[in-house]
Amino acid sequence: MTKSYTKKIKILRIIARLNVGGPAIHTILLSEKINNDKYSTKLVAGPVPSNEGDMSYLADEKDVTVSYLNNLQRELSPKDDLKALSELLSIIKKFQPDIIHTHTAKAGFIGRGAAILYNSFRKNKVKTIHTFHGHVFHGYFSPLKTKLFLNIERALAKHTDTIITITNRQQEEILALGIGKKEQHRMIPLGLDLERFYINKNTSFLHTTYSIPSEKKLIGIVARFTQIKNLKMFIRVANIMYQKDKNLHFFMIGDGEDRDMLEAYTNETMASSYITFTGFLKNLPDIYSSLDLVLLTSNNEGSPVSIIEAMTSGTSVVSTSVGGVPDLFTKYGNKFLVNPDDDVAMANAASEILLPHNNQLFIEEHQGATYSKYNFNRLVDDLMNTYKELTHESIYVTA
């Protein structure tokens, strides 16, 4: 008698590091949800530097086991990169995945490099997917290094089965840069665990914790403190707004390599009495519900989680119009997008959105729609369909 069964599809998921931000949340949730009777998922990550917020606690909460490669570093290092490549090849040989799915630039480089080497010795090739959560081709590195990375991505795209972007605009940018062909690309928006933001009503957390008078309106930014986030702009905008309205207080929520510089700049501009640095905080639903307005000042973004979480929480947002940010705003919301480094425009837009009528309309247009579009159930369905297409859900028969 013969018995037919469906083999589990094995997914090896690789990310450079589980630092605070959307990619870490995204990969941890996927590793939790796509690990069932049809799929087996293994998550590999590099270490988080000591000056960045670490989200490995979320993996612990979700009961996701992470295999750490200490040599998988963010910076280019031939010695460390070769070690990481060798270690990853050993994991691939042992796990024998059907699909290698990489997230973020460095993981995409090392992970797909390992897949190319692995496939060179195999008849049945492992499939490869790479997700661009953002890209490093603007505002991160010198022109020479940017050109190098661009050429690497173009070469790797030739050995990638599916290239995922998280917004339509990002997909257009990646294609315009000559990375992959249209038929390789698939746009799949982020998916996040948003219910805790949607239902949270703790509007007094920041006022109470930091002893801010209840009548003051709170404006914040939630970000990694790194150059691409352009956080000096937040401080300058805070200065402009506070000079016009003393009934405001500002929060910089996060941490990173630029924190000392930003605190010094705040002191230099005499803004320390109305700007509070909180460090990295875990209870983000309470934070967003406490804020009257979230700002984002970045010079480059993919699909920023801080905006998605803020909108889902019923908090208004003003942002620079970069990367995939405009895709998160409705036609009405577009009036609250400004050019990078236009401090006056952001301060004016922020003052306008704080008016009760504008604030209410913004929330009505964005809260429910954002929750529906970016909740992780939709993401899981989208990716499982992608995996099925690549593997054809092979059926095996045994005696």
UniProtKB/TrEMBL annotation:
Residues 20-196 form the Glycosyltransferase subfamily 4-like N-terminal domain. The keyword Metal-binding does not apply. It comes from the Bacteria. Pfam families: Glyco_transf_4, Glycos_transf_1. Residues 210-354 form the Glycosyl transferase family domain. GO terms for molecular function: hexosyltransferase activity. Keywords: Transferase. InterPro entries: Glyco_trans_1, Glyco_trans_4-like_N, Glycosyltransferase_grp1. This is Glycosyltransferase. The lineage of its organism: Bacteria, Pseudomonadati, Bacteroidota, Cytophagia, Cytophagales.
